[in-house]
Amino acid sequence: MIYSYLLGLFSSILREQANLTHDGPKWIVLDGDIDPMWIESLNTVMDDNKVLTLASSERVALTPSMRLLFEDRVKDSSGESPSLKETLQHPLDTLMESRDSPGNPFPSGDPSPPPVWFNFRSESHSSQAVKRTSQTFRRRTHGWLQNSYVASWIDRRQHQSEKANLTILFDKYVPVCLDKLRTSFKTITSIPENSLVQTICTLLECLLTPENVPSDSPKEVYEVYFVFACIWAFGGTLLQDQLSGYQAEFSWWWHKEMKAVKFPSQGTIFDYYLDHKTKKFMPWADKIPQFMMDSDAPLQRVVVHTSETTRLRYFIELLLEKGQPLMLVGNAGVGKTVFVGDMLASLSEDYIVSRVPFNYYTTSAALQGVLEKPLEKKAGRNYGPGGNKKLIYFIDDMNMPAVDLYGTVQPHTLIRQHIDYGHWYDRQKVMLKEIHSCQYIACMNPKVGSFTINPRLQRHFTVFAFNFPSLDALNTIYSQILSFHFQQQAFASSVLRSGPTLIQATIAFHQMMTRNFLPTAIKFHYLFNLRDLSNIFQGVDSRVLLQQPLIYCHFANGREDPCYMPVKDWEVLKTFLTETLENYNELNAAMHLVLFEDAMQHV
Ligand SMILES: Nc1ncnc2c1ncn2[C@@H]1O[C@H](COP(=O)(O)OP(=O)(O)O)[C@@H](O)[C@H]1O
Ligand SMILES: [Mg+2]
């Protein structure tokens, strides 16, 4: 619900329904964050008056066959006004008293159901009635939601033997994994459990094709595929950084507990992909594409493929094909933006990509403008990308926009509305627009902005953690870049030989920096990432390396403020040193130095 034009929209829908003459039930579903500003204007609709008074003093009365259904996640109520609680309290209390089955909006044999219904999911709320309602909902829907999703997914599979195998496998693996995840591991951002389970289904849907798994396959084959999907749905979301290595721990745990499907013992379970031909696990390292670099491209935009990027790419390509929303979550400067940019640039011509970088000031209206730009009007109220193409919105830094006074990030509600319902409204004409053939890929850094996003939006996305590259990967990235560069510029062989040492020294130095200069509340800028590393190598240029003299000192600029800079030429240095020597000789016992080049290098 986007409340900048809500009342226009809401009042026009209300008026439309009030004017309908038939007495069949009419529902208005209000799906989204409830905030006190607009709920207050609905006060008279929700109490016994059942009348909406508009600013123009027009009055629209609810007819007996009209119902409002509110759907929301109940947030922590600390920021909510007393009037919101009161407004909600009254209908909820009547609801609780009058009904023994609060989850059912269509109770049988009830001649006059109340006009307002709620469908809430809640973690905490101080209003007792809301708490009670939401608990009832949770009890009824929680386990049920997961299983019913899985059950209906399995039901849609074609072959009987596959259905039977999958049912056994879900029971065998999923509850154990969820349990372990709850108690021992941490995902990179908070992800609803149901969404993890959905990811398994989505991955299986991509993997269990008739070519990979013909319908008469033995149960062992289903199990290998299931295991592959399961470790990526769960393990792919786990946090792995300097302080905690949940992916590594997950891998140990898996090796220890899940023995039915054998993994090679070297490395972690995340180092292997499932080979469709042999049904064996093979190292991702074998699949890394050859490095190609455009020598004109700025280094900041170059991507060197590593086994980490290769495996992410594999899954992203699988899921993009299905139109599944995707999200990469990782700290600043780990390479999310360049990686997604590189991947989207290599897609076939069937796709159009629209880049939508978010920042603090992104509003839902501005976002809608950007989202609508690549769309064309089709028949009726339908809109979509031109031709038969598919449009990918690349939302970068998803969690950056401002959180409003009542805890809502308005651009997020627009995206959720689109994913949930496939539509949004024309803001001027207050008319529905159906938006087709679009999908989302998003990135975010869980340490900035609003940190997390609304779980009702988050749940749609398949999440992969994008962790800082391993030592091996760092080595690969910079060796490839450096050796390409050295070849291009025809460096002397002595320089070529020093390449690996240079990289090792840089990486070791980077590690020392990150270990010794930890960010704190005050020194929050102590973040050292791939941007710093890339900046070092960006500077490596033949003019610099072969420059004579290759001397850096803090008095390169003479008597000005000390600053560590390269010496421009011998003459300047010589004049400065001679002067300094003369000064010294005046004040101290004379020192007779002859300043020739070697001596100066020594200084
Ligand atoms: N696989 C890679 N190969 C080469 N450079 C990389 C790679 N991954 C990251 N980088 C470097 O890291 C820098 C930061 O990446 P960026 O995508 O801006 O990070 P994020 O979006 O995660 O904050 C890039 O400018 C790039 O130079
Ligand atoms: Mg970025």
List all distinct small molecules, including ions and cofactors, that are bound in this structure. adenosine-5'-diphosphate, magnesium ion
Our estimate of the beta-strand percent is 5-15%
Mind telling me which CATH architecture of the largest domain this is? Answer: 3-Layer(aba) Sandwich
CATH superfamily of the largest domain: P-loop containing nucleotide triphosphate hydrolases
Radius of gyration: 31 Å
CATH class designation of the largest domain: Alpha Beta
Please give the largest β-sheet: 5 strands, parallel
CATH level 3 topology of the largest domain = Rossmann fold
Mean pLDDT metric:
82
Total E-strand runs: 18
Based on CA inertia axes, which overall geometry fits?
A: globular
Q: Give the N-to-C terminal Cα separation.
A: 70 Å
- Quaternary state reads single chain
Q: What is the number of helical segments per DSSP (H or I, 4+ residues)?
A: 20
Secondary-structure topology with pairs:
Blueprint: H1 6-18, E1 26-31, H2 36-41, H3 43-46, E2 51-53, E3 59-61, E4 66-74, H4 82-98, E5 116-122, H5 128-156, H6 160-184, H7 193-207, H8 219-235, H9 246-257, E6 272-274, E7 281-283, H10 307-321, E8 326-329, H11 336-345, E9 351-357, H12 364-372, E10 375-377, E11 382-385, E12 390-396, H13 410-421, E13 423-426, E14 431-435, E15 438-444, H14 455-458, E16 462-465, H15 471-488, H16 493-516, H17 530-538, H18 542-545, E17 552-553, E18 565-566, H19 570-587, H20 597-602
Parallel strand pairs: 1-4, 4-5, 8-15, 8-16, 9-12, 11-14, 12-15
Antiparallel strand pairs: 2-3, 6-7, 10-11, 13-14, 17-18
Helix pairs in contact: 4-5, 5-6, 5-7, 6-8, 7-8, 12-13, 15-16
Domain Dynein heavy chain AAA 5 extension: 168-286
Biased composition (Pro residues): 104-114
Region (Disordered): 95-114
